[in-house]
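3.2 Worked example (two chains)
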Amino acid sequence: RVNFTVSFVLQNGLSRQESPSIYAEISGPVVVLRTEIGKDAGNRAPLLIAGFLYSKVSSRSFVQDEINRITLSFSLNVDLAMTDSILDGSTDLYAFFMYVEGLRSMLNTGNFLIPNRTEGDLRYTVFNEAGLLSFRLDKPSMVAAGREYNVSVEFHNPSRPISASNLTVSAGICSSSTVNCSVEHILNNIKFQIVPMSSGPFFVAGFLYGNISQSSILPSSINISVANTIALRLSCNVPILPGYKLTVSGLNQTSGGDRQVALIAKNQQGQALNTFDSLANLTVSLGRLVLRARDKIAASSSLILEFNVTNPLLGQDAVSATVSSTEVPIPPTLLTPAAGLNSPLLIAGFRHASIGQATPSAGGLNYLTVNLSFFTPVAEQVVLVLTGLDGISLPSNVTVYGDFSPNDVHSVSCEASSLCLTFLKEIPPSQTFRFSFEVNNPLQGQDSPAMYVETRGAVRIWAFELDKEDGNRAPLLVAGFTFLTIGQTNPGTLVTNTLTVTLASRVTTAPDNLLTISGLTGIVTESSSLPLTGNLSSYICQQAANWSAEDGKLTMQFCADVPPEVYVFSFAVHNGDVAQPSPALFIEINGVTAHSRVSMNKATGNASPLLIAGMNVSMSQAAASRGSLNQLTVLLSTSVVLPAGSVLIVSSFQHAKLADVSGMVVNETSVETTSGGHVAVFWNESDSRLRFIFADALQANVPHNFSFHVINPQASQPSPPFTARVEGDVPIASTAVLRGAGRAAPLFVSSYLSYASMAQSTPSSNSLNTLTLIFATPDGFDENMRITLSGLINTQTEDTSELQLLSSCGLNSSGAWSQSLGRLVVSVVSAVPADTNCSLSFSITNPSSGQSSPPLWFSSPAAGIAPQEIEAASGNAAPLLVAGFTSVRMGQSNSFPGVRNTFKMEFTANVDFAAFSSFFIAGLDAQKIDWSKELVLCSSLPLCISSLQLPNASCPQLQVSNSSQEGSGGGECSQGSCCTMSINSTASWLCKDASSCLTFQAASWHDATSALGGCERLVFSASDALAANVAYQVTLEYTNSMLSGSNRFALSLGGAGPICVQDGVPELGASSARPFYIAGWNYKTIEQSTVATAASNRIRLVIQMGADVLATDNRSVLLSGLLGSATPTGSLQIVASSVFEARGKWNQSAGSLLFRLSDTLHGDVNYSISFVLLNPPYMQDSPGPILIQIVTGSGQVYIPPTSMDKGPRNLAPLRVAGFTHASIAQSSSVCGTSNQLTLLLQPNVDLLQDQIFVFSVTGLQGIWPGYPTSITLEQQDPLFLGFALWSTGGRVLLILQQNLLAGQTANVTLLLNNPSTTSNATNMFVQVTAQDVSRNLFVPYIASVPLSAQPAACPTAPLHITPNFAVSISSRVNASVAINVTAYLLPFRYTLLRVSGLQGIDNASLADGLNISWSSCTGEQETIHWAIGDFSWSRDALDLPSILLEVGVTYHIKLPTLPAPLPADMQNVSVVAVPAMFEGCGIDLTILT
């Protein structure tokens, strides 16, 4: 029982453990059984290894940028105290230390520990750069084993997502409470093992990555919306639960209203996901998209989200977009934009666009300078279009200048007021593109117009208004006057007059420019320099203008810049004495800021510039008797306003006296004007003048009447000449007074006729007519006096000085006749006593057309007889009353084909017709009458009708004019003279009384074979007399034919006897009431919307009927002839007004469409109708004709079929695009060589450059271009872009850049390389696709058609690839050997051809030479004998030293007979061409035995 102690050293393990059970036993001679050893308690328990019983860390928040509390909880399996007896005896205090490793990630994210915010039993000590966090015990006490300890520390979460930190924790005793604990300070004997934490501390929610891209940089326009696919690539480090929303912000400036957009979700492999709602809410005004999760999305899942926005109208830089979620929550996280053109909402457009000019001079040479920069690169071949160049004309090729190479751009005048530049190299977005071009400014001033710039082609930028430079540099601002007036102070004659000009220019006018006013007529100023006043004068040199009286110009020079403001200047002139209206005045400026010559606006009234006063004065009288009281009337009109107090002086009144109304002679009196003005009249007998003083102002250009009385002279006298002038503030120079005519001439004192009347012999037109005048005068006529008869108008008697007369008194037997004046002058050869009744007769030819009796006049100035009207006889005897129809009206009752119709005529004549006078209606259109049906004649008078009147001796030319208001007139009817006819035995007549109608068959009067050829006349005779000016009616009822259209002839009514009446042109009924009009289509056009093959084609009709068509009898419109459509038979939707039903019946095989009327189809109204047909998948021309008609429900024709007018060119209905010629040819068939494939393409439709067309040529397998993806082109005309796109599948894409019209052949050559191996020709095809802008894709336009090979096989078809030359050898035992050589590549001229391996051929057999024949692929052939010296033979080889090889020619070389048996090595025959000049792939050798 002796205690003994055993000590030994063990290395503790690295993992926490509790003290195990420890046993002791003794073995050997003395055995002590295995017995558990007792242990010390607490920390002294053996093999108790310090460690954490548990440890965890938790976070209060995982939201970015929030305050986060981190709580560390732990429990130890040992006790630790501030002073522990197991330490090394130091008396210093020791702190419990806890070390947390792995916090560097927090430092890297910008996180920081918030000081003095720790909580719990431990207190924060330090957080250093190594990411070490240490604590010490807050009070001197023990850390007890098994007890839970907690400490909390506040952090500021980072503004980006992070995953949970991988933290480890260790603990121990720190050597000093004042020293920052570190791993080195931990006492080893108390050191705890490192324990990893199991939870996720410092976790911050967010998107692990987020990218955003787009599909299109093209801007939208007002009419075209460009859809842009935005793609998001996201991964979130937390799950997104159903109902959670993601918000994408920053999608600024998109177009359209707030709406829902389709959302497509995919995984990283592109597989569709159903994790989000299919629609997302787009708030355009906020640039925000909200999408809602439908299913749970696991953390760290990779998502692709796609949705469409409508691109903005204007260009812009890429946006900075963010994504966030309030439910997770995740603050807005910036999305990484894609690079280049895929950067989100990077939109092509102009970053800057401005324009200026060099000069505003009107008509001057000007340079316009444009500065542009772009948001995106502008690709090669993009066309820049500058529009709004108003007022100028550009040449077809415009030279542009700038800091670029001439080969960088191509410029043309492409449209009205437009300039087009094609970029021949790419323009980067960072570069300012500047160019200038010269123009000739318009001659007329204009404000700077709005100018726009756009691009077309691969980068389409819509029209963008250019910024303009200021002032005179504003583009196409052309100098001119914006305000311009001129006025004056006094319009009087021979007075000083001040002219005042007010003007304003739209530009700043430069010094040394000359301002010129021209047209200053009527001025008598002699000075050559006129002083100027007003605010413009300070800008004028010497403040004076140069005056040139010779050409009426005033010129002044500017001495300083004149800003564009309103200016006034005045100058004084002296008016002339000649009245004139205000002349046209012009102003212009010459110099560097030239203003074109323009007319000046003028003040009105008396202020109108250089209006010089004038007046018209006329005077007439009431009485011409000798010594009688006479009232004179003055009519005064002045060109200016006469102020009150103006004096009118009129002279001269010889032999007359001023009198009042009672006849008393006076020296002064007063009268009133008709306008109420007071006029004082003063008489001065000494100078025979009257002075009229006006108390009131007289308005200009207004007639002022006033009357006064005089006593006439006692003797007869002609009217003396009078003059008048005005004195006062506005003087007017003297002018002659106009006098009344005849007896009304002032102070004319005359004699008169006591009686005068006239009658005629006939009113017939074109007839010789005798006129008889009976007259008398109380004064008689003296010898040699002359009398004049006037008013004899419109006769057909030509001028003569000896018109035969018959007189009962002393008048001459002939007179002077003037046809144009209608005047007859007769001399008195012996005196005629007073009060003698005289008669005078003469004959003239009546006018050719009807007229009323004109007023006739008798005068004799020598006898003092003023013109006096002659009394006309009554009725048909009225002189020069010529028979005619004063009114002829014709119409009809029904215009539709195949129905009864009534022709109506009402006529009135100006003369009386005796009973049995004959008339005819000419111009009846026989084709509009159904002659198989009966006719019914009715009238308001008894009459008889005749058959067609044929020419006879009494009426040889009874025909009518062919001039027509409608139709062509046909040309069958000719104009003839009028003659008389009467009912006689030569004509067949049908008669009726006034109360009945006459029904008869057409055969009784219609003669379809007559010489008139269908220009029918209805001849009728009234059995009663017809009175003048009374309306009579005649109607003819008949059945309309089925021929639609207007009357082909001119309708007229004529009289045939006994009074001949020229044709009366009728007043025709309107529209459908026009006689012999049968309703049809006034307007009938048909067009289509597209020529694309297999496309939906909208057919559009515009129709107009000539009359109303009622919607009865199930009437329908029937179209036929629309052949070739792929639309199957069935119901078809009709787009039209409510007049038509909404669906029609379509018959594919007949190409017909039937659609019913639902309301009245009104005449003379346009109706638009459209429907959609499917174009066939192949080319066709527009079928024809396409007919339109109207049918009833029973199928009867209501309006006969008529051909429709087709739209031109591509608008022709059912014209479907295709190629009338499509062929391909090649330049070389040899493999491995360069080859030129030439395409000849001729479309049957117009392919215009307002749409993008892509020609696709397929079947070109094996060939390869010179560049990886493009092929160089050669073209006769630059119809296509200068390169083609190439794909390895044997397809070539050509892009059309100019118009290719129907029938025009496109000749384009592709520069390619043949494959390196031989191949047979392939089938090649061509098709055309066109851009559908509305859907932003290309659609078929011309269906695929085969390309015909040219040539087909001579020497080879295109892409039939051959070697340089092909060789075949045919032989047969005991027969000759034939070697066939065909060449495919030039040049092979005079080539050494060696054939070796010909064992067994006897040399002697070649002694007679060789026969070599050749044949071409075109059929030519020839045989040539080669002598022994022309070739050589060595053992088994044959050398042909100078054979002429041609492409496509086969040479046949015949050798001697082979031996039998055939040598074994005969199989090794070879053919070699020396030298080897070819590029190809070798020789194709075939041996036939």
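3.2.1 Second chain
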Amino acid sequence: VNAEVGSYLDHNVSMDKVTGDAITVHIVGHTHDDPGWLITVDQYYVEEVEWIFYTMVPVLQDNPLRKFTYVEMAYMQRWWQEIDDDLKSDTVALVNNGQFQINLGGWCMNDEASPDAAAVIHQMTDGNQFVLSNLGLAGRPTVGWHVDPFGHSWVTGGLWAQSGFDAFAVHRINYMDLQTRKDAQNLEFIWKGSSSLGEDSYIFFHILDSGYCSPREIGFWDGASWINTDPLLPSWPPNQIQLAEQLVADARTRSAWFKHDQLLIPFGCDFAHQNAYQSYIQMDKLLDYINSNATYNVTIKYSTLQDYIGAVNELNLTWSLEQPDFFTYVDHPHAWWSGYFTSRAYLKLYSRSRMNDLRVAEHFYFFAKNMGLQADYTTAMYNISYLRDAIDVSQHHDAITGTEKDAVAQEYMNQLSNGTERVNHWDESIVGQFLKGPGGKTPTLIRGNDMISQLTNNNYVVMVAYNSLAWNITEFLQIPTNRSDLVVFNKNNQTVLSQINPVADQEQNAKYPAKYNLFILAQNMAPLSFETFFIHVATAEHPAVVGKTVEFESGETFKAGSGYYTITIDGTTNRLASITNNNLGKTFAVENQFSQYAPSGGIYYDGDIASGAYIFRPATDNRLKLDSNNDGKLQNKKQTVVFRQAFANTAKASPGIIMQTHANSGKYSDTFSATVCDIDLQSDPPTFSYQYYRHNGGTWGQQPLLDFLVFDNNDASYSQIVANQQTGSKTVSASSSATASTSITFSSAFKNVPTLLASVRTASCDGMQFTTTITSLSTSGATVAISRIDSSSGWTGAVSLDWFAFDGSEVEQTELMLAGSSSIQISASNTAVSNISITLNDVNNDYVVNEPVVLFSVQQTSPTANTYYYASTTYLNNNETFIINFDPISASGSGSVQLTVRYIAFERITLFGNVSSDASIKNVMITGPLMDEVQQTFRAGYGQTYRVFNVDDEDDLRFIDNRVLLGPIDEGAEFITKYTTELSSDYEYFTNQAGLEYVKRVYFPYWDERIAGNYYPSSGATYIEDMSEDVRFSTIVNQGHGVGSLRDGEFEMMLQRRCLQDDSRGVAEVLNTTFHTQPQVMIIMDSAENTANLNRRLYQIQQFQHSFFFALTDTIRSWSSQYATSWTAMNAAMLPAGLPENIFLMQLRYVYSGSKVGRNGGMVLALQNMFEVNESSMATTQTIDLSTILNTNVLTVQNSTEMNLLASIPLANLHRLPWNIQTDDDEEEIYTIRDPNSEQKRRQQQKLKDQSSSIQLKPRDIRTFVLNVDPDVPTQEEEKQDKEY
């Protein structure tokens, strides 16, 4: 993302910052090369990246002390393809001697929020297999870093531990947490990467202390800094001393944040070292100078992350064991990076779906090659690799995140589409050979369903469905068609339950031109199998089953579904009202609503961070942030903004505005005033103008704030923040002096003396500024004294007094609002600013607003003879106190002025609304034997369907199928679908990270952005739970998305975003996407046990749905007599169920690239136990015999070798570093993991395990095997080097 230059320190260097205890500084030369961001991956390669490689190799050859580390294999493989053998040999030599080190080794540096684990492991495997095949085992990464992904999950740490990495480093964590860890010397610890895997998931964790870019004094790679050591250059004096002392001072400051004497300083940044000569020769000079100066007491050297970790490990220190989750990332106040969880939803959805196409192609290649089928395997692997590359690159942290430019996103889509087309050609070329008939005849089958258009009374459409899962499953197949006269048969000429429904209104668009959906119940589909269906024109004997549209009276409540679930649509709201689980015999209140946040920025720009591709920050009313005013140009400058909330009737609106200046930083004596000076209701949208004024000076260095409340005197519901509020606007005639007084009469008397807020509004923006003091206040009215504060002269014209009154004792305190009062006194003769702190009246001790809007009034209770006026500004508003600066307009007399401050403190009103009124929602109910479908239209661009099955004996259909039909959504909208249930979830919810483990999220209301700060990523499943009732409500979505639970029993999912302004995080483009998306939401309301089991299984069924192939035939018999109608790759011993229900076949493909088989020449099988420890009764250890998974006519497993997660080294040959860990219990025990003796024992035991085909998978295990080939193992010299490291 945004190329950054570390956190810079004070460079007015003194010797006490330069000298000190001995430290060793590791200068880690690197480049961070985004595979696409501002320009495409191809453009980056041609314009920038290849020059890094071409110049780096000779630079490293010139000096054996120089080192460089590289990450992204997507680029290195491109370069490798174009260079000659000599340059390849030179590069391999540098790898072998440790100068050119591969870090991470993935195809890209993947995002950690959106991708599924299968995609992450896939791209990491592909990258590391490139390393293995071209650089050899010496190039295998032993460490990895994620310097740029926008937040980090401990699940990633667990994956890298299973990959055999010794350490993992990151950069982007919460800036507040970062500072806390610096202060506590806790930037390094052992990260627990799984709640189930124990020590197998532990990894040493390092947080980069100041970013991944160089300090500016060593920015030699981009011209940010230059060094000259030659005194004979008169126009450029030598500066090595200055640079050295700056760097050493930086190093000493940063070293204090660690508990040892080793320090890592990055040397590089985004696309750094395109001229490596320029970078390294200058760095040589600086290193030589520092190392030659004993005064510094610093050893500084070229290094790598691997070298640094080795040096830290040699210190034999003891580390804490922690399991923090570093979501959601925030880099600045109000800047929560929770927008990218959903940005470019269309790309997230499409990338996820391509994994299914790739899986099918990989399977076909695997089966065909082992069966010896006739095919062009070279071209096939080229096409498969094309889609592999496209999917791998799309996992990049500026790709699937949606944080790239539009043109780059389109190129990702193009590559995914092109790759899909290529593998489809491969699939079509080979699929028929699996279905050869008894005479050896091969059918011709194609992807796509356009053959239905060729259907007549005299033929059939053959549809072959492939199940890529290693389970027997039941699924409803969905085929779009323009015909409603269809019937489906199986291979035995028996009708198959099907149903034809008209397509929903919002489903009809350019991407989905069909008029109908043909739904087919595919029961008991064998694992890894083909099954054939026949589609024919309906007849009287075999009529089409067409869903019947049910008519309802207006306002009538109705139900849908008679199988496992029944849903109720309320006749008043026209929305979901309840879900009945017929198996449990319970009905649960569940309300579903479509809503949208307005994004900050654009017309809602408030002077602070905008909502954009990275950041989610909903627009709010009630606060504006001003720029600094060091040059004085903003003093009393007219500023115009739109009214944040629309008036119900603009023509009749009569707005008034209460203004209060506010600041949270800077000089605490700064005191401001703000006056509304124009209201333009004719503007579209309507606007108001104001002038901001510093009373005690004409400039300001801080960014002050303006808090305000708008009301409409003709619409009591507008900004109705408290009950029984009264408002008014009164014209006050021009005064010949600076002061005047006016009275207010309330429309009805209050029971108690009310809080009265009042602000002066002028008719022209001529610079007049005013303040008010209430001189009398009763239940029926008040007297308000007004004084001009910018001048002692009279008024230039009449003004309006806007007032807002309410009974403070009747304000119901909530966690987001409270009211109160406080008596204070100020010396009557005081001429200086008084800072007075007021404690909020938080009687319930539950007020949570981090930086509330505080509006207050001042009533002078004594003396009564003279009225005192003050310019006032609130400071440091928080959930406990606020401070008021009182700057006297004039001072006179003696004694004290007694004042009563009455206030209301509340959270800024979020600009949020429902997509449409309940009355305008249109429901269509279609019923049939397979399902009831409720088609719901909110308005154009917003719709959904609920498909509730009427078959109740199919475990795989125990969900409600909810298709959300979106787009284009409104410009300036962040769309959510929200579920409100009756469950008591205790403000907790659980998001599934990478499809592997659930992370408990707890609502924390104290963040400065309460909504955005409580949004978290979900790669698929999310649930809330009522433990007292043993019930969970869960959703499974086929795209990464953001979720939040802001109220008990409720959660919302953000599914599309369309912003108004860039968020200043580097992409420099507004996220303004207009795509139509149709994500699938599987809804489950069930017991905790059932939900846990269904979540795991249905997640995989959703990701890897059936693939279809089509042909035409005259009759079912003619097809069945010539060709096979079913086939399975599964071993008969595993049939009919397939693998155990808790075991997922994650990988089955040719990808291993060891020297014995060449690139993609070896078979890899990966199995996953999907359940976490104690997740459900399914969380058990399973024993699997690898030799009995596949049919022997597909593959006979002669031997298997267990590998690391990335299949790059046998576990029996894996050496790992030992680490000392201190427990956090009362015993504070210290123990060592991976010590040499235990590692030696583990390797010996692994060699014995590899002799057997029987394996065990514990809960959450992912185990990876190379089949029928002896993998590459390190040479004795490599093992020796590994042990030494």
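3.3 Remarks
The radius of gyration is 34 Å.
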